[in-house]
Amino acid sequence: LVLMLRENALVSSIIRLYNLCMSQSQVLFSLQQIDSRLDQVNNRSLEIEKTLSTNIELEQAQARVAEAQKSLDSNIHDLHIAERHVQDQFVKIEQTEAALYGGKIRIPKELQDLQNEAIALKKHLVVLEDRQLDNMEKVEIAQEQLSNALNLLDNVNAAWIEQTAQLHNEQTQIQTLRIRLESERAAAISPISSDLLIVYENLRRQRNGVAVVRVSGKSCSACGTTLSPAILQSVQSSQTTIRCPTCSRILYSG
Question: How far apart are CA 132 and CA 85, in angstroms?
Answer without folding.
Answer: 9
